[in-house]
Amino acid sequence: MTTPTMRALRVATIGQKPALIELPRPEPKAGELRVRIVACGLNFADLLMVAGTYQDTPEPPFTLGMEVAGIVDALGEGVSGPPVGTPVAVYGGAGGLADYACYEARRVTELPEGTDMQAAAALQVAYGTSHVALDYKAQLKAGETLLVLGAAGGVGLSAVEIGKLMGARVIACARGADKLAVAKAAGADHLIDAKTEDIREAVKALGGADVVYDPVGGDQFTAAMRAANPEARLLAIGFASGDVPQIKANHLLVKNLSVIGFYWGGYLKFKPEVVTDSLTTLIGWLNEGRIKPHVSNVFALEQAHEGLDLLKTRKSTGKVVITLNDS
User: Between helices 124-131 and 272-287, what is the axis angle to 10°?
Assistant: First the structure.
């Protein structure tokens, strides 16, 4: 009897181009289930893993692919569900660019029948980051003012959309009229051009910020902190500028500010229900039409390198998704 195989985009050596190879189909261990993967969202972190610079890079060899949607295919020992045949979404951190992958059952979120699998794969990192950051960490309240830096990027745009859904007044900050137009379309109430405007003065003129969502860092974080209202919460999401801001504690003291470090994927290690509960909410919003992830490019697994190149050259205008099997 021959061992069933599958395709997988595999990193054999850090720094070398991943290769599409055949591997034995994995068997779920105790506490795991196996998913037949239908769609996998690509992320810039996949490129960082290839280079070995991502904070959660697995030991090679490993399969790329962080966020997936698919169908439960087999249950490991001690796993009672979701039953075989159930559509699910999973953030696994790796392993998704393969026909099958095994995940801890507690990481899996069931999908209602008829859910758009490409959208379910595409929303997890960007929308999950923004939803957990704004709801669970910052406890954003209706009527508060949310300042989103880098508002036209993947996570920034989802923060604008989710902030509006949560009832906030949203100030979007991005570079240039084209990017600001994208943020406006996502629901932003006020726009600030980071290329031409003084962020601190512009935010203060709008009444200050109660919550700051910052995937940029650098001078923009400093400007936003100085425009924050008393008791504001500042979310450090990332440092796209390449400059990690150094925060003076006395500035926090004067206005009773809170700076909150946030890494969405980290919750899977010590409190995965934070992620899975959030994904349940987001999938509900997706099926109600309240959010709509923008998938700009779809490729088959054999074309995955083209998708990764789009991320590397920053030519994609939305999410890049790889399709693997029929649903």
Answer: 110
Q: State which H helix or E strand residue 254 sits in.
A: helix 249-255
Long-range contacts of 304-312 (CB under 8 A, 24+ apart): 304/9, 304/20, 304/42, 304/64, 304/97, 305/17, 305/18, 307/42, 308/42, 308/46, 308/47, 311/42, 311/43, 311/44, 311/46, 311/47, 312/47
| Cβ burial, residue 210 (10 Å; 0-12/13-18/19+) | buried
Predicted local distance difference test score (pLDDT) of residue 104: 93
CB count, 10 Å around CB of 263?
13
pLDDT at residue 317, as a whole number: 67
pLDDT digits (tens, 9 = 90+) for 148-179: 999 988 789 999 999 999 999 999 999 999 88
pLDDT for the residue numbered 54: 87
Rounded to the nearest 10°, the torsion over CA 36, 298, 125, 247 is 150
Q: For position 239, what pLDDT does the model report?
A: 83
pLDDT above 70 covers a percentage of the chain that reads 99
Residue 211 pairs with which residues in a beta bridge? Answer: 146, 233
d(CA 233, CA 231): 7
Diameter of the chain by CA atoms? 73
Q: Which residues contact 68 (CB under 8 A, 6 or more apart)?
A: 35, 37, 38, 39, 40, 41, 89, 90, 92, 96, 101, 121
pLDDT of 25-36, one tens digit each? 999 999 999 999
Give DSSP secondary structure letters for 213-228. Answer: EESS-HHHHHHHHHTE
Percent of the chain with pLDDT over 90: 78
The tokens for 261 are: 């470090």
Q: What is the dihedral of CA 231, 236, 239, 240, to 10 degrees?
A: -80
Q: What whole-number distance in Å separates Cα of residue 106 and Cα of residue 126?
A: 21
Query: Tokens for 309?
Result: 């190149």
Q: What is the pLDDT of residues 85-107, one digit of tens each?
A: 999 999 999 999 999 999 999 88
